[in-house]
Amino acid sequence: MTAPSPVLDRIRIGSAPDSWGVWFPDDPQQVPWQRFLDEVSQSGYEWIELGPYGYLPTDPARLTEETARRGLKVSAGTVFTSLHRGPSVWDATWEHVGQVAALAQAMDARHLVVIPSFWRDDKTAEIIEPRELTAEQWGHLATGMERLGRQVRDTYGLDIVVHPHADTHIDTEEHVERFLDATDPGLVSLCLDTGHYAYCGGDSVKLIETYGERIGYLHLKQVDPEILADVVKNGVPFGPAVQRGVMCEPPGGVPALEPVLAAAQRLGVDLFAIVEQDMYPCEPERPLPIAQRTRKFLRSCGA
User: Entry's SUPFAM superfamilies (predicted)?
Assistant: First the structure.
């Protein structure tokens, strides 16, 4: 007889446009936003993220109407930043952040997911910047994120959660820990993406147990270990790796999500856990059945 799943009553499950193959505000290979909203609701989710700014309607009244009639609520918006480049990028960063944060605030979200810029192009594989930051750049990154956390909270009432991501400067266990150790816990928390962290060799359960007070948000994702091994061996960029299916449907990959969710529950705080299965580009009929099966699987885990 199997043991019953733990009750994950501190975990709020949702999904995101990413699970429908959406990476850009407008792209002919992506499903229309109306279809995403219809299908994410049909799959049994009540929380969503905004996705790329401009994919969903940016008028708060329109978006409120469209989400409310489908029983959906917004957990977060997402921004991309390159704060390691120093104060010169602040004004452009804040302009972008302000758009997304204002919409997230209007939708009663409480979080802003912050993704560092890529060091190589996720489409062309062109190396844009060195893979490793200098000590000065680490300093810019830490102080910039603290400034962002303070201003986003003061201006919009949102908490930033920084998202370690493949092909960025915050990726491996070493880089994630260096970033956390360099930033103020009162200003900067982490969005732990289980798939990206595994992609870069990290252990999500260990990170939750070691830096629990810094975990402010979760993205639930798995990687296919066989495809990942080939990706790592051949230095495949993230975009082409996704097209090969490196991010796979749970529970078929790693890390196992049950222990991750159990570790998150033990933190004793309310956390969003947003499903993301990178699938850009994908056939329009593909996301819905995957989303339905994933929601059923997560219910079997107690979420």
Answer: Xylose isomerase-like
Q: From residue 33, how far is each of 39, 243, 250 by CA, in Å?
A: 10, 21, 24
Interatomic CA distance for residues 225 and 209, integer angstroms: 23
Which helix or strand (DSSP H or E) is residue 35 part of?
helix 33-42
Assess if CATH 3.20.20.70 describes domain 11-300.
Answer: no
Of the chain, the percentage scoring pLDDT greater than 70 comes to 98
pLDDT category of residue 122 using cuts at 50, 70 and 90? confident
Closest CA to 113 of 65, 165, 66: 165
| Whole-number Å distance between alpha carbons of 237 and 45 | 31
Find out whether 74 and 80 touch, Cβ atoms under 8 Å.
Answer: no
Burial class (CB in 10 A: 0-12, 13-18, 19+), 86: middle
Q: In the block, which residue shows the tokens 């091994």?
A: 229
Name the one residue in this structure whose structure tokens are 């915050």. 170
Under DSSP, the state recorded for 127 is B
The mean pLDDT of the chain is 96
Q: Kindly give the pairing relationship between strand 222-223 and strand 215-220.
A: unpaired
pTM of the model: 0.96
Give SS3 for 23. coil
What is the C-alpha separation between 109 and 100, in angstroms, rounded? 11
Determine the angle formed by the axes of helices 135-156 and 173-182, rounding to 10 degrees.
Answer: 60
For 57, how many CA atoms within 13 A lie in the half-sphere containing its CB?
13
C-alpha 100 chain-centroid distance = 15
Question: If we measure between CA atoms, which residue out of 207, 263, 290 comes closest to residue 11?
Answer: 263
Tokens of 53: 């700014």
151's enclosing H/E stretch is: helix 135-156
pLDDT at 4: 59
Distance, CA of 235 to CA of 214 (rounded, Å): 30
